[in-house]
Amino acid sequence: MKILVCISNVPDTTTKIKLVNENTDFDRTGVQWIINPWDELALTRAMELKESTAGLIEKITVVNVGKKENEGTLRKALAVGADDAIRVEADPKDAYYVAVQIAKVAKEEAYDIILAGIESSDYNGAAVGGMVAEMLDIPSVSSVSGLFIEDGKVSLNREIDGGQEVLSTELPFVAIVQKGISIDPRIPAMRGIMMARKKPLTVVDAVEADVLTGFVNYELPQAKSACKMIDEENAGDLIKLLHTEAKAF
Ligand SMILES: Cc1cc2nc3c(=O)[nH]c(=O)nc-3n(C[C@H](O)[C@H](O)[C@H](O)COP(=O)(O)OP(=O)(O)OC[C@H]3O[C@@H](n4cnc5c(N)ncnc54)[C@H](O)[C@@H]3O)c2cc1C
């Protein structure tokens, strides 16, 4: 069995976003890039499954559609434990375009399980995983918070209102994962970092694909007004402000 984990390269969640080019892009200067948090959990779950199924999982491959500067993120995924990495050389600007590239990679190696995050933490498209499944004409299960393999059979858990849903599916399939798929993302250890340098990272050309969507511009949320402090003896002022400014009642 082979697992493909889709890895989106995203700015660290503490990044202060500064818009440039008439608010159509953001300034990448000094940005720290990380593995999209959901993809990190997906990779961790893939590792756990490989370790607990004694030889059933032949390899875990990570894939990113992006430019050379994304290789640091792929190397981190190799350090966590992926066996090899593929970078599709492309300037990704759209979920459809990205999905076409991943579907091509998945088809070529006939991966049995394809894991994608529920959304990227930067563009929040929540689109790629479902598109990949459709392009490959295979089942997809969304919002997966549990993935198990027992006696070669796969079961998936989904959180539903007040409970859990358990599903089964045939291989190959796409699981679009969310929080809970694994509890603690693995952090690369020194040995993993050393080994990652020697693991294969293949760069493949992108295939022709349309870009179906384009951003007109971005808007930052309005700056919050300064915090107003009210003395305890003037509690009435607080009620007035809640009514007149916060419009709470
Ligand atoms: C204007 C613009 C500029 C961009 N510039 C860059 C850039 O300079 N560098 C860059 O790396 N990205 C860039 N991107 C992001 C890139 O195009 C996204 O990967 C793509 O838009 C999909 O994002 P999404 O939010 O729809 O993904 P979602 O559907 O929210 O992502 C869900 C999951 O799909 C998988 N996935 C998403 N994107 C990728 C990917 N690229 N490779 C592999 N798996 C993926 C991951 O598993 C992810 O968790 C840019 C996007 C836009 C719109």
What labels would you give this structure?
6 helices, alpha/beta, Rossmann fold, 249 residues
Number of domains: 1
Radius of gyration computed on alpha carbons: 22 Å
CATH-derived topology: Rossmann fold
Give the strand content.
25-35%
Q: What CATH architecture would you give? A: 3-Layer(aba) Sandwich
> Number of DSSP strands?
13
State the CATH class.
Alpha Beta
Description:
By secondary structure, this protein is α/β, with parallel strands linked by helices. The chain has a single domain, classed as Rossmann fold, CATH 3.40.50. The protein has six helices and 13 strands. It has helices at residues 37-52, 71-80, 95-109, 128-136, 190-196, 235-244, and strands spanning 2-6, 9-11, 19-20, 25-26, 33-35, 59-66, 84-89, 113-117, 140-150, 153-160, 163-168, 173-177, 201-205. The strands form three sheets. It has a nine-stranded mixed β-sheet, with helices on both faces. Helix 3 crosses helix 4. The chain is globular, with a radius of gyration of 22 Å. The N and C termini lie far apart (59 Å). The model has no long low-confidence stretch (mean pLDDT 94). The structure holds flavin-adenine dinucleotide. Flavin-adenine dinucleotide binds next to helix 1, strand 6, helix 3, strand 8 and helix 4.
